[in-house]
User: Which sequence fits this backbone?
């Protein structure tokens, strides 16, 4: 128990008999504090000055009551304290803050309401280095005995959109002028490097435009532009500011620019101003080679009276979208939110997450005054239009509303960065080539033995160091148990190494934090030992590849930096959960270059925790703990929304002979096996929402994991997975699967070709987004390995689509021109060598459509090389059964590939499902392992075996590659002969066999014969089940005698034909639906071949073997069931109908702005063709170079006439097909007049018009 003597003074209130603490005073109100600004506070006798290394010693409690100098370092010794004063706008700048004592900004009972800013300085070679606890450079470090209390203003961390926000391009009446709309504005076709200059009239129409590649003539262009016009400049490329003249610089400065004198050739530069109003100028520059701003933005100039906003792009990568004029209700949109947010203020930066596959469609904006535009306290207004669609609604009972988060906090901790990346050694130079920016930010690190640490309501910006491990934005490091400590309501953005790290620490509360744009895993549970930590309500978006661990790195980076470990790279995750005994509830993984959530464990503690866990006496059994994962959301992740699979390498001989470094990912069985009090249990991942994840929404592979009451939508594959243990499985229960919702995302143009005309590629516009190819199949369930159970779920909107590439408007299309995307609800893993288990099943599922109705299928299997499918071993042995018959019309009917090996006369062909059969039979698995010959390591994975049935017409031979294992799906009550492939140079008979039968139950029997050398002396037989045999097998004299056996103890060696026969049987039935074998007892047989010519392979293909006589009752042939009607998802999924929150279903309606659009001049008349006789003729004298305009792509008669009209000229003259000049006096006479044929050069912007020639001008009146 903490006594009163241990409490800081501000926490002491009136304590007396029967009276408790009623309220906490603010820390700056503590009596006796020494003021920073008093000379007497300091042992030196004076207030610290710039570049001093400052120490607050024991016994001194200092109040920061005024702006401090720029310090070298700040150390707070044990017994000392620094308390931030209740003063607005103080900035503490230093290379580090080392806390052995106390550092307070606000308290739990008195949150700091004003602005506080801590700036951490330093480069990688900074001399201010601290070895203690490996703090090193540029940090806030809480050392042994230290206290860190940061309590910022209370603000809602994040909410959701309550109404869809459309991209600016999709909003009617959004644009007054759009430079990229070249159908309306031909000048948008001018895309050459240079200084692009546009002049707008007050209403947003274009007065003039030019592209300057010689800045020396730039100044003259502006001499006749009237006051009040708006000028936009976007310069890029090597010619953008080439030959920059003093006139160029002075012209920009006269318009209000200030940065132009610092701009170099090759830099990009944006400028916007109203002529005659220098204070209106806005500008932006980017050094050549510097990283582009993300996301791209625009300079703004608002005319509230006209309701329009002029804009110039700040990003060269925003190709050809340099200039635009918007309706101000679009330029400054209103967002309707689910909640009445607390604490959000004008000037705060917010994040609106992507609701599409690409997380980079997330956009940040600043809050501006709403004025009359807002009609509700749930509405805010922001400072720029949106480039992307952000969905804000429920769709088919799936909540796909974009998250809206606050990034600005009143306490800001910032790493001060260099403008350009630098490298002091080769490793740092490599980082620059990867990231193109300085990645040596600040870090906050809390060490074991600290006294107290609470961080709440803080913004952390440019934190984390990509250079080294352990320098993370917020980091509890090897702290053991930290009950009552927390990280809450913080905003961490644009960080360089993760977001929040929990390392060797238990019982930490991490709640309601926002993470945006970080390199490496976001929320990072580091050493696979951390337990009982709670992660609740955190939003993580923008997780990008880092370089610290193999799992952080992209496959491309590994090709150059870790070539030997490419397969161990590329598992980046927003939430990296390396121990299951942690609570994850109501978090959102809103965009990653990898996975949203990844559960992955290690066989022993990692890093320093290996030693520490031994010191603490804690054993390592992570695979025993059930998951606590509920109410979480994952969307817009490039790979999987949730990924449970694999192991973390420990870097020892335990995995792959120690070749994989620690923290690499090994794709092997994770052996996850949740238990409670010694008994196996199901772990439930419930009430989740998963959508728009690039590969699949859920990849789950582990023991007894159930997905329940979840919504799964808008992903190529909704769920796939299997088990890693012998008697466990995965189940999906009472969940909703939607193939494609109303959230179509952003339409996209793709270069595509129909399958039958691969060389005939066309650029086609799709009105929806795709994470991969438009033809990639769309499925809800990808059955894989197993057992997988799909029970009481709802499926809708799995519809096969076709696009006609010949003529988008055509009502009919030739098959050769069709591009097709196939779809179906229940399906299989598309490209796999792993065979399915025979215990996977479906039961009591509902559909929102009728099977095979207009391209909609309940079940689907793709053809080879179509939509991501391949014809591998696993794809040729797909299997599940229909437990209640609602899917197939027959109880316990099996769904298998249409292959003779599996077939029978009672099978129903379902080619509408993709070459599948519905058969009323049972199937089991037989796996063969062996020693030598075709089962040796050289041949076993290269089609070593050939199997055939004995009963006609199903005797067609069948073979698999055996890349994973030689395991075959067999129909029961049938007989088979296994032959060996004799095409291999080293082909031969194995000397030993191990055979395993999976899924064999009491009523099952399968007769198997294996081809053998003719001169075998004898066989050694060992069996564990269904009977125990130790070379005491009973040998039959005939096949009939073998077939009559019911014990499983009998074998038959057909010496005349050289075949060894036996039967697969069982004494048990399943008592657990996920058992691979009944009661965990599998048929097992070991055969040793004694003697014989093993190297002289012979074939048994032509030997006729009498088929097994099936005396069981002949089943009825399945029939296609009638449609049961259109079902609804009522009662399924995560949505609570009584708690949906505020939502607006109607589209936002925008009133149009009345604008003056430039049209044909009423007085425009052709004058004739005039010769350019010499440079000083009267026409040319009046048409000086300052009024000349050349447009290489867009010159038209209207363009030239309109610009000359706005310039105040009577005449417009066009020459060379692309040049426009203006004048007021036209000299007549025979020497000047040409014929029509002299002016026949077509205009580059309109081939139906003529724009003079090299020596002649087409002259028009302008209407002046």
Assistant:
């Amino acid at each position: 128990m903490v006594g009163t003597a241990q409490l800081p003074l501000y926490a002491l209130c009136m304590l007396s008999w029967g009276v408790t603490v009623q309220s906490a005073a603010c820390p700056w109100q503590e009596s006796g504090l020494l003021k920073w600004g008093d000379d007497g506070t300091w042992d030196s006798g004076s207030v610290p000055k710039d570049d001093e290394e400052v120490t607050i010693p024991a016994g001194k409690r200092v109040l920061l009551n005024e702006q401090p100098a720029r310090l070298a370092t700040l150390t707070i010794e044990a017994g000392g304290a620094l308390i931030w004063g209740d003063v607005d706008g103080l900035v503490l700048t230093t290379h580090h803050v080392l806390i052995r004592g106390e550092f307070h900004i606000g308290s739990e009972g008195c949150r700091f309401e004003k602005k506080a800013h801590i700036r951490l300085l330093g480069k990688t070679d900074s001399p201010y280095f601290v070895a203690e606890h490996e703090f090193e450079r540029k940090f806030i470090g809480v050392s042994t005995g230290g206290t860190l209390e940061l309590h910022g203003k209370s603000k809602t961390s994040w909410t959701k959109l309550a109404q869809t926000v459309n991209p600016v391009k999709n909003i009617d009446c959004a644009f007054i002028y759009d430079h990229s709309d070249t159908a309306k504005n031909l000048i948008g076709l001018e895309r050459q490097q240079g200084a692009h200059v546009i002049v707008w009239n007050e209403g947003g129409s274009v007065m003039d435009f030019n592209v300057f590649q010689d800045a020396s003539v730039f100044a003259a262009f502006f001499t006749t532009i009237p006051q009040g016009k708006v000028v936009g400049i976007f310069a890029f490329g090597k010619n953008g500011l080439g030959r920059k003249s003093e006139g160029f610089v002075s012209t920009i400065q006269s318009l209000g620019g200030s940065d132009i004198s610092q701009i170099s050739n090759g830099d990009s530069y944006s400028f916007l101003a109203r002529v005659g109003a220098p204070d209106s100028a806005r500008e932006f520059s980017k050094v050549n080679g510097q990283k582009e701003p993300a996301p791209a933005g625009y300079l703004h100039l608002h005319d509230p009276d006209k309701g329009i906003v002029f804009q110039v792009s700040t990003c060269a990568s925003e190709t050809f979208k340099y200039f635009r004029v918007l309706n101000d209700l679009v330029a400054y949109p209103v967002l309707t939110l689910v909640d009445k947010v607390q604490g959000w203020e004008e000037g705060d930066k917010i994040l609106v997450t992507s609701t599409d596959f690409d997380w980079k469609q997330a956009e940040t904006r600043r809050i501006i005054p709403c004025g009359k535009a807002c009609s509700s306290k749930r509405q805010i207004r922001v400072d720029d239009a949106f480039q992307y669609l952000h969905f804000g609604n429920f769709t088919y009972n799936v909540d796909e509303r974009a998250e809206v988060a606050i990034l600005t906090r009143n306490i800001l901790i910032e790493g001060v960065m260099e403008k350009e990346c630098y490298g002091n050694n080769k490793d740092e130079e490599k980082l620059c080539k990867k990231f193109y920016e300085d990645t040596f930010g600040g870090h906050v690190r809390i060490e074991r033995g600290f006294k107290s640490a609470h961080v709440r309501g803080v913004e952390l910006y440019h934190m984390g160091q990509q250079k080294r491990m352990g320098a993370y934005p917020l980091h509890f490091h090897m702290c053991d148990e930290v009950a009552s400590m927390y990280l809450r309501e913080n905003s961490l953005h644009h960080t360089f190494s993760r977001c929040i790290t929990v390392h060797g620490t238990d019982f930490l509360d991490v709640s309601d934090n926002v993470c945006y744009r970080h390199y490496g895993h976001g929320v990072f549970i580091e050493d696979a030992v951390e337990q009982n930590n709670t992660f609740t309500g955190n939003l993580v978006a923008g997780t990008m590849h880092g370089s610290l661990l193999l799992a952080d790195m992209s496959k491309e980076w590994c090709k150059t930096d870790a070539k030997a470990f490419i397969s161990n790279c590329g598992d980046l995750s927003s939430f990296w959960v390396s121990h299951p005994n942690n609570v994850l509830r109501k978090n959102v993984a809103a965009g990653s270059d990898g996975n949203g959530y990844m559960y992955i464990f290690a066989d022993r503690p990692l890093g320093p925790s290996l030693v520490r866990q031994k010191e603490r006496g804690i054993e390592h059994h992570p695979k025993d703990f059930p998951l606590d994962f509920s109410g979480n959301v994952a969307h817009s992740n490039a790979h999987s929304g949730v990924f449970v699979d694999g192991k973390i390498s420990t870097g020892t001989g335990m995995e792959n002979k120690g070749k994989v470094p620690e923290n690499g990912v090994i794709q092997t069985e994770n052996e996850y096996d949740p238990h409670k009090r010694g008994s196996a249990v199901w772990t439930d991942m419930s009430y989740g929402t998963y959508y728009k994840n690039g590969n699949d929404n859920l990849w789950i592979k582990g023991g007894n994991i159930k997905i329940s009451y979840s919504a799964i939508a808008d992903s190529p594959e909704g769920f796939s997975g299997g088990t890693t243990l012998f008697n466990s499985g995965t189940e999906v229960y009472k969940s909703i699967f939607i193939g494609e919702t109303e959230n179509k995302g952003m339409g996209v143009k793709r270069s595509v070709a129909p399958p039958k005309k691969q060389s005939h590629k066309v650029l086609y516009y799709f009105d929806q987004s795709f994470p991969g190819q438009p033809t990639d199949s769309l499925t809800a369930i990808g059955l894989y390995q197993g057992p997988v159970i799909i029970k009481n779920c709802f499926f809708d909107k799995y519809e096969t689509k076709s696009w006609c590439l010949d003529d988008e408007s055509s009502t009919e299309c030739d098959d050769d021109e069709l591009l097709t995307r196939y779809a179906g609800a229940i399906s299989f893993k598309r490209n796999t060598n792993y065979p399915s288990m025979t215990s996977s099943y479906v039961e009591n599922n509902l559909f929102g459509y009728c099977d095979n109705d207009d391209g909609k299928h309940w079940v689907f299997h793709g053809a080879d090389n179509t939509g991501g499918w391949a014809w591998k071993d696993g794809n040729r042995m797909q299997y599940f059964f229909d437990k209640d018959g609602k899917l197939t019309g027959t109880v316990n009917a099996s769904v298998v590939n249409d292959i003779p090996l599996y077939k029978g006369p009672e099978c129903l062909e379902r080619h509408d499902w993709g070459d599948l059969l519905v058969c009323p039979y049972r199937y089991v698995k037989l796996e063969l392992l062996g020693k030598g010959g075709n089962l040796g390591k050289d041949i076993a994975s290269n089609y070593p075996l050939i199997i055939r049935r004995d009963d006609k017409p199903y005797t067609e031979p069948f073979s698999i590659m055996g890349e994973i294992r030689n395991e075959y799906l067999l129909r029961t009550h049938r007989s088979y002969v296994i032959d060996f492939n004799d095409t291999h140079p080293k082909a031969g008979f194995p000397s030993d066999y191990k055979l395993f039968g999976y899924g064999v139950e009491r009523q099952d029997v399968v007769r198997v014969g294996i081809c053998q050398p003719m001169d075998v002396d004898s066989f050694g037989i060992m069996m564990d089940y269904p009977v125990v045999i130790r070379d005491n097998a009973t040998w039959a004299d005939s096949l009939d005698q073998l077939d009559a056996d019911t014990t499983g103890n009998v074998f038959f060696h057909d010496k005349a034909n050289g075949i060894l026969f036996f039967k697969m049987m069982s004494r048990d039935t399943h008592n657990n639906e996920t058992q691979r074998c009944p009661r965990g007892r599998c048929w097992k047989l070991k055969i040793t071949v004694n003697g014989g010519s093993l190297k002289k392979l012979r074939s048994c293909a032509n030997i006729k073997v009498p088929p097994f006589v099936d005396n069981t009752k002949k089943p009825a042939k399945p029939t296609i069931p009638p449609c049961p009607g259109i079902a609804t998802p009522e009662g399924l999924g995560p949505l609570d109908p009584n708690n949906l929150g505020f939502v607006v279903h109607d589209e936002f309606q925008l009133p149009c702005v009345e604008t003056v659009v430039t049209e044909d001049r009423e007085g425009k008349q052709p004058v004739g063709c005039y010769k350019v006789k010499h440079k000083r003729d009267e026409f040319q004298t009046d048409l000086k170079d300052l009024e000349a305009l050349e447009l290489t792509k867009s010159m038209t008669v209207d363009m030239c006439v309109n610009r000359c009209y706005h310039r105040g000229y009577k005449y417009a003259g066009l020459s060379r097909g692309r040049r426009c000049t203006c004048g007021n006096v036209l000299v007549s006479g025979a020497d000047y007049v040409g014929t029509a044929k002299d002016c026949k050069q077509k205009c580059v912007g309109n081939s139906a018009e003529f724009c003079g020639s090299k020596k002649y001008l087409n002259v028009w009146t302008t209407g002046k």
